[in-house]
Specification:
InterPro entries: Nicolin-1 (IPR040235). By secondary structure, this protein is of the alpha+beta class. It has three helices and eleven strands. The chain has helices spanning 160-165, 182-201, 219-224; strands spanning 14-15, 19-23, 31-41, 50-58, 62-69, 79-88, 102-106, 117-125, 135-143, 212-213, 216-217.
Length: 225
Amino acid sequence: MSGRCDQQRALTCTVKPALYLNMGERPCDAAQSGVCVVDVTLPFGKTADIEEITFQNDYTASVTVRLLRRRPGHEAPAQWCTALRDLSLMDNPHSEGGSQDYYSIHRSQMRAEPDDVASVRLILKQPSSAWLSFSLKNIEMFPHTEPHFLFVLQEPEKEVCDWLSDLTLDDHLTQPQDVPDPHTVSSSLQQMWALTEVMQSDQTTASVGRFDVDGCYDVDLISLT
């Protein structure tokens, strides 16, 4: 499945005719080897970073992808490297399955980065003699572009005090049943303090007998003690 954007334009390139490798020096003695080469070249002097290669199969059993890479700023000649080897396109070379399907080779499938590519060579294989010919159709290459990230500034995290200030008490919470009202307790303490002050100011220094009543002693009280 393709991972590219549908609006992305394919690279301008030239797909050369398929070249079948034969055994023998003369065509009349040649026997088809089951190997075909298709070269896809970019305009002269141009290179590209490839994101993916798409095509429609035409009875090809497997494909190998080789890249001609030319490093910018280097005087060394361009070099070939194998990016993908023997990718299966048909489950069984002798049956129709996958023979006309569409395929997409993404750069993530390649073991060599397809950057600064001047040409792509597709080596096609078909070991079965059941098909008169085999090739690939509608070959296209799409450029690799760096993803654009959208940076969103987020508000700094709130301080703990700000977070606590945002907390709201639940309206359904009720006061504890056995805790007295603090205003009532305070008022009672003030009254007790005032009463204590009055009693201390009115305290007499006269001694009071233990058993005297109106200046006399109660005989019954004395006898009981």
